[in-house]
Amino acid sequence: MSNVHLIDHPLVQHKLTLMRKKTASTNSFRRLLNELSMLMAYEVTRDMALQDVEIETPLEIMQAKMIDGKKLVFVSILRAGTGILDGMLSVVPGARVGHIGLYRDPKTLTAVEYYFKMPQNMQDRDVVVVDPMLATGNSAIAAVERLKELRPKSIKFLCLLTCPEGIAALQKAHPDVPIYTAAIDRQLNDHGYILPGLGDAGDRIFGTK
Ligand code: URA
Predict the structure, then answer these.
(1) Is the pLDDT of residue 150 over 80?
(2) Which CATH architecture has domain 4-206?
(3) pTM of this prediction?
(4) Does the C-beta of 159 come closer than 6 Å to ligand 1?
């Protein structure tokens, strides 16, 4: 699958397995998602541009490499995307944050927008859209479509789990958007849930079920 980056580091796979277990408490699910988000942030920022800056070590002046974190925007698809944000921000504290509120119409499974707030000057920024689950792809497609209106420099999509249907849908609509994921599961069920999956990510993060 082109443009799909499978983050198969053993630590990522191990923590994901712990999260999948139905016995994982809300507390441990949230903590594991936070740890996984830090590890995934490491992968999704791998090709970020570096600048040379002059610094002084205790011994001499040197040209050293730094990223410009402020140019990066993490866009969380509410509400489950919020669970990924903290971990990402602890690795890139200078990043800006945008929010897109989308809910899935339970009958049609299509995405309906209810909130959209982005930092200014999006045309100068690289965007990483985050949502734990890329399932039908409807929310991801709608979020990317909306973001493209602001013409950011680049858009990546980061999730924890996806499935062949979600990848196909997002790639068909936005072939230019690379997908970063920790796992590609077997399939979607009739209710738009990923199998074997981990259940409803939002409910498991916030303990709402
Ligand atoms: N959203 C979820 O939270 N879980 C799924 O399996 C699919 C979409």
Answers:
(1) yes
(2) 3-Layer(aba) Sandwich (3.40)
(3) 0.93
(4) no
